[in-house]
Specification:
The protein is mainly α. Helices cover 62% and strands 4% of the residues. The two termini are 12 Å apart.
Length: 138
């Protein structure tokens, strides 16, 4: 199944991330007031920029990075980032807006529970891909 390969993960993960970035400046809004889901789920500018950046990198890796081993290690990087976002959301999610600092360069808001569900899903998806890639040889 392509979804559980590093290549499939990069393609579909990249598509989802770019779509989230676009939705974040339209339907999901960049503030609570601009989001159709209100305080339940909105994507602030920092999240939109990161989703777009990571999505473009994932799609570029899908189309241009032909080394399967490097694709696998890129999924490891995504796993670590998604896990960190999940943990940060759980720890900081009950705090008011701009509740998470990113290396003291920017701040973002990780809403509970929807941001955590999204990041947790990506973490589990990446873990499944990595398990298949490292431990299940064809």
């Amino acid at each position: 199944m392509m979804l559980l390969t590093p290549r499939g993960f990069l393609l579909w993960g990249g598509v989802v991330l770019v779509a989230l970035a676009v939705l974040g400046v339209t339907v999901l809004g960049w503030t609570v007031d601009h989001s159709t889901l209100g305080a339940n789920f909105w994507l602030d500018p920092t999240e939109n920029i990161l989703h777009l950046l990571f999505g473009v990198v994932a799609l570029a890796a899908y189309f241009f990075l032909k080394d399967a081993n490097l694709q696998k290690w890129l999924v490891v990087v995504v796993f670590v980032i998604a896990l960190a976002a999940t943990v940060a959301g759980i720890v900081n999610g009950s705090q008011p807006a701009d509740n998470t600092q990113i290396f003291n360069l920017a701040s973002t808001n990780l809403e509970n529970p929807l941001d955590n569900v999204l990041h947790g899903f990506v973490t589990l998806w990446a873990a499944a891909v990595l398990y298949r890639s490292f431990f299940m040889k064809a």
